[in-house]
Amino acid sequence: MKVALIQCPAWVTTAPPYALSLLGSALKRDGHEVRCFDLNTDIYLAIKNSKNNKTHINPESWTNYKIENDFTNTDFINELFEAFEKIIYEAIDEILSFNPCVICFSVHATSNLFSYELTRIIKGKVPEKVVFWGGPYCFVSYENLNRIRQIKPEIDVVCSGDGESDLPALLTYYENNGKFKNTRGYWFRLMMDETENYKNDVPTSDIDNIPFADLSFFKQDNYSWEHLPVMISRGCVNRCSFCNEWTCWNKYQFRDPVKVADEIKYQLEKNPRIKTFWLTCSNMGGNIQGVKKFCDLLIQEQIHITWDSQLAIRKELTPELLKKMKEAGCNYLHYGLESASNRVLRLMNKGYERKLAARVLMDTAKANISFNFNLIVGFPGENTLNFIETLFFVKRFLRYGIASSVAACNIPINSDLNKHYEKYNISSHDSSTWRTINNRNTYQIRQLRMYFTRQLYNSKIINLFHLAYRLLKKNSFLSLLFHYFSYFIFFAWVSHVFFILAVISVYNSAKAIFIKNTGKTRHDDSEEIKTIILFEINKRINPETAEQIVRKQTNENLIINLNKILDHFNNKELLALLYKEIEGIPAKIIIRELKNKSNKKIIEEIEKTYLKQGIDMHRY
């Protein structure tokens, strides 16, 4: 059977899509004829090489700090389709000229909108073709299946987990019988009886039985080969309370180190241009013995490569092991630190304390391995002092060249925070606009903490010691003296941060007591909306205009000014905010008030755009 595999924007551009390469190998092994189409890289290169690009779309949209905002924005996707219509339709013609029986999309949160628009066009041209969707966006844990079923009728089949094991046999059965066989983790729209449809289970492949990724499906010269992914594990042994990634797989699997080493040799032989291997996983350190064996193999077989990966802090990451990892080619490690407060680490269920994290990071530096770590600020239960502890920890390691990797705490579906939000004293468990019962942790507080953390990373004044490192040897006496002198500036800055956050925290707490005693909530809701408008419009439009609009608002005329904002900015910017916060109280209040004001023009505009997003506004 002919099968087309498609990767839409946005995804990584330095190497071919690894997931499609694995899936293509598995299908090819079972006798299917496969072609892969990397529209992501095709469009990225077209934009990068364009000399007459008259749009504001540029290669920066593929960078980490813009990819999510841009490619989850409907207006951006529409503009992309309009600006690069020729390239997109040429790709569609190429796909259809292959005449595949089945067309499969690998879908992520950042490729969802583009994938659906392309699916709609293809189905409009050839409605008889069977369209599969799979990938992280479709995983059971993220609960997008109902949305696909209800508002994306062009999609025929959804795979809610790994596809390498079951998909080849499923397509063979369809080719021979003209219908699909009921298979765990696959949902079928019209191909089988509704009574048999969909067993809510996570299809999990045995990663040791997946063939090596076949990169020959793709145009080799389209990639820089700076980082080539190679799978080393799937799943995670940790159960962090803010995370739902471990629920995407039934179990943690560490791939046979021999197979990992063999695939690295195989890929190097096929393409010597590969510079660094990225060992893909959620947590490489879930099997320390496996890590040791893998490093031993690379050393013994003299496989001279550099590799990067990510892992959790563990006591088993000894100085000896880290030195062995360096000897085996480890160049960079990304740790899931999240906080440097022992209290918050316990609430997060991280399983270690700050002292161990500091020891592991110092040993990583001594082993001459570059590193970075994630931070999550505003976790429920984190107070101002806990946050300041984390700032001191970050300051300690800035000298090692770490970069900002900080996020405000959200509440993902199927995380412990989501399932048991009462346990964390959360008054509502909306993804990003949640607040604690005492009102000391709000959207405003979390945004401020994230802002201050990024300021610590990026401020040239706070980090004057970098100048000494450029002029002097990094570990010289004078550079270290300059480093410790920079703490005077840091102490002054952190005192300022503490004062601001403490005042806001006390004010919010007093406001919560007032609301509890009086039963008045409208003021509280309005303040939250004002905060969101100030932050979001400040970032996206004009800081002065945003400040003036918000400053003039009172509780009574808030909704009137919201209407003015919608009109003033052609509805686009605030609408984008409403999509983002649709599950939150602010969006509900805005929609309700717009209905009360009978503003039909704006309501129709919102309804129309919500429909494209798969949101039924009438439920509000």
Provide structural commentary:
The structure is a single chain. With 620 residues, the chain is an alpha/beta fold. It folds into three domains: 2-207, Rossmann fold (3-Layer(aba) Sandwich), CATH 3.40.50; 225-499, pyruvate-formate lyase- activating enzyme (Alpha-Beta Horseshoe); 522-619, no CATH class. It has 24 helices and 16 strands. The chain has helices at residues 18-29, 39-49, 67-71, 74-83, 85-97, 112-125, 145-151, 167-177, 257-270, 288-300, 319-327, 342-348, 354-366, 384-397, 416-419, 443-458, 465-471, 477-518, 522-540, 543-552, 558-568, 572-580, 585-596, 600-613; strands spanning 2-7, 33-38, 102-106, 130-134, 157-159, 186-188, 227-231, 233-234, 253-254, 276-280, 307-311, 330-338, 370-377, 406-408, 426-428, 435-436. Strands 2-1-3-4-5-6 form a six-stranded mixed β-sheet, sandwiched between helices. Helix 11 links the parallel strand 11 (307-311) and strand 12 (330-338). Helix 9 (257-270) crosses helix 10 (288-300) and helix 14 (384-397) packs antiparallel against helix 18. 40% of the residues are buried. The model is unreliable at 521-590, 592-599 and 615-620 (pLDDT under 50).
Our measurement of the CA-to-CA distance between the termini, rounded to an integer number of angstroms, reads 46 Å
Largest sheet: 6 strands, mixed
Q: Could you tell me the strand content as a percent range? A: 5-15%
Over all CA atoms, what is the radius of gyration? 26 Å
What would the CATH topology of the largest domain be?
pyruvate-formate lyase- activating enzyme
Structural class: alpha/beta
Low-pLDDT ranges: 521-590, 592-599, 615-620
Write down how many β-strands occur, each being a DSSP E stretch of 2 or more residues: 16
Morphology call: globular
Name given to the CATH architecture of the largest domain: Alpha-Beta Horseshoe
CATH level-1 class of the largest domain = Alpha Beta
The percent of residues in helical segments reads 40-55%
**What is the overall number of helices?**
24
Task: Write out the strand line-up for the largest beta sheet, numbering strands in chain order.
Answer: 2-1-3-4-5-6
Instruction: Give the name of the CATH superfamily of the largest domain.
Output: tm_1862 like domain
The number of domains is: 3
**For the residues shown, what is the average pLDDT?**
81
